[in-house]
Automatic annotation (TrEMBL):
Matches recorded under PROSITE patterns: FLAVODOXIN_LIKE, RUBREDOXIN_LIKE
A Pfam family reported for this protein in Swiss-Prot or TrEMBL: ODP
InterPro entries named in the record: Anaer_NO_rdtase_flvorubredoxin, Flavodoxin/NO_synth, Flavoprotein-like_sf, Metallo-B-lactamas, ODP_dom, RibonucZ/Hydroxyglut_hydro, Rubredoxin-like_dom, Rubredoxin_dom
Residue ranges annotated for the Flavodoxin-like domain, each copy included: 254-393
Protein name listed in UniProt: Anaerobic nitric oxide reductase flavorubredoxin
PANTHER family referenced in this protein's UniProt entry, alphabetically: ANAEROBIC NITRIC OXIDE REDUCTASE FLAVORUBREDOXIN
SMART domains (alphabetical): Lactamase_B (SM00849)
Family named by the database record: In the N-terminal section; belongs to the zinc metallo-hydrolase group 3 family.
Length: 495
């Protein structure tokens, strides 16, 4: 199957709906992907890139239905990674003398992957051009590290189409090929996921290379990527989006991720998140368990965040392995201009928090003081976690929080009781104030409410039981903490 792109350009690529993993198992492709190859038929016939090696047979069959392979004059390989040059061996077996245009670095990687040093390689550099007849030329632009040292883009004059390879692409599959045809939210989600998980370390190069390309003052009518959509509607939108992402991108967002052996570090995470929200309801707080959530989604959230909080139980005096793995990934992605802190529960030593703190500092984050809780955090410890969150919210705030009470009230009147920085003393006071047994009691950690009229039959607390008669071993049914974290609802609202 082919898809007409523009004038004498056709897409001859391959969709891959089934793929779940990329780069081994490091990148989860939640929306499939495509390997985009393009056939240009002018006086000379040119193939731009091939497809993943697993689809070599289909690729050759499809291409043969479109053109006699012997009529292909030139092959351009923008990038040698096997998702683009994978079908080259099968193609060259059919047309072995066809000139291949690529960067000098690509000869090394193509030869290393395919073991055919005898192929007819032609090295191109930035600014080199290849005449393909009918007044049109291919102009080459080296883009090292976007995504490999061998990468380049190819620009087709007159048609003003930029074949950008990995850059501006996404792991996204849709039978519709053009950017204006697909779901815009899905598309931009996948663009961000791709950039944040793959290109973040090269942000400085992205900025420099885009400015270099813009400096050529070439018109760009379409950007034909090697994965996902062809940008035909306002194609430069993705260039400007890349410039934003490459500029130490952050939103008013805090990402918390952790692993937890016995749920204790998880309790801390939830309380810290609530403390942040108490003080700054405008900040988007996202909480992930690294053992359960999609790693690439967590990294995309880290990319979007002004700061991160990383938690782990202490196990054998070190952090849990999945947290260590995430920190290794984060170190490699070389995020800039972000804040960070460590937290976690422990039994007899708290080595995990110290190690996380060190790793975050070494990775270039501006680190704040860590927080440890011994064994299962009790009510006092949970209040400290919540207060820790409040302090984080204040010190990481991107805007004035002096009117936070009014901000909170206007955002969610029902939650206004949570939004005062003086909540900690109010909680402490209220813990000792249970004189009115008919009052509803609020769990200050998870906001579950004990209503005497209903009781809590699951714990044999019968309807009509006043708070003073609720047994001391009572646990909040939502978060599992004891009576000491409860406070009268009315008093909290008054505070
Ligand atoms: Fe899509 Fe770097 O390969």
């Amino acid at each position: 199957m082919t898809i007409h792109i523009k004038n004498n350009i056709n897409w001859v690529g391959q969709r891959d709906w089934e793929i779940l993993d990329f780069h081994g198992t490091e990148y989860k492709t939640t929306k499939g992907t495509s390997y985009n190859s393009y056939l240009i038929r002018e006086q000379k016939n040119v193939l731009i890139d091939t497809v993943d090696h697993r689809f070599s047979l289909q690729f050759i069959q499809n291409l043969e239905m479109e053109i006699d392979l012997n009529l292909i004059d030139y092959i351009v390989i923008n990038h040698a990674e096997e998702d683009h040059s994978g079908a080259l061996a099968a193609l060259m077996a059919k047309i072995p003398n066809t000139p291949i245009y690529c960067t000098e670095n690509a000869i090394d990687s193509i030869t290393g992957l395919h073991h055919h040093p005898e192929w007819n390689f032609n090295i191109v550099k930035t600014g080199d051009s290849l005449d393909i007849g009918n007044g049109k030329q291919l102009v080459f632009i080296e883009t090292p590290m976007l995504h490999w040292p061998d990468s380049m883009m190819t620009y087709l004059t007159q048609d003003a189409v930029l074949f950008s390879n990995d850059a501006f692409g996404q792991h996204y599959c849709d039978e519709r090929l053009f950017n204006d045809e697909v779901d815009q939210i899905e598309l931009m989600d996948q663009c961000l996921r791709y950039y944040s998980n793959i290109l973040t370390p090269f942000s400085a190069l992205v900025t420099a290379k885009i400015n270099e390309v813009l400096g050529f003052n070439l018109p760009v009518d379409m950007i034909a990527t090697a994965h996902g959509v062809v940008w035909r509607d306002n194609p430069t939108q993705i260039i400007h989006q890349y410039l934003q992402w490459a500029d130490n991108y952050q939103e008013d967002r805090i990402t918390i991720f952790y692993d937890s052996m016995s749920n204790n570090t998880r309790l801390m995470a939830d309380a810290i998140a609530q403390g942040i929200h108490d003080v700054d309801p405008g900040v988007s707080v996202k909480v992930f368990n690294v053992a359960r959530h999609d790693k690439n989604d967590i990294l995309a959230n880290v990319f979007r965040s002004k700061g991160i909080l990383v938690g782990s139980s202490t196990m054998n005096n070190v952090m849990m392995p999945k947290v260590a793995g995430m920190l290794e990934e984060i170190t490699g992605l070389r995020f800039k201009d972000k804040k960070a802190g460590a937290f976690g529960s422990y039994g007899w030593n708290g080595g995990a928090v110290d190690r996380i703190h060190t790793r975050l500092t070494d990775a270039g984050f501006e680190t704040t003081v860590g927080l440890k809780a011994k064994w299962k955090p009790d009510g006092k410890a949970m209040r400290e976690c919540r207060e820790h969150g409040r302090q984080i919210a204040k010190s990481w705030a991107l805007h004035d929080l002096s009117n936070v009470d009014s901000i909170s009230s206007s955002l969610n009147p029902n939650q206004a009781v949570k939004s005062t920085v003086s909540i900690a003393p109010a909680v402490q006071t209220s813990c000792a104030t249970t004189s009115n047994d008919t009052q509803d009691m609020l769990c200050t950690v998870c906001n579950w409410v004990y209503q005497p009229v209903l009781g809590e039959p699951n714990q044999d607390v019968q309807p009509g039981t006043p708070w003073s008669e609720v047994p001391d071993f009572f646990l909040c049914p939502d978060c599992g903490l004891g009576k000491e974290v409860f406070t009268p609802v009315a008093q909290r609202k008054a505070s």
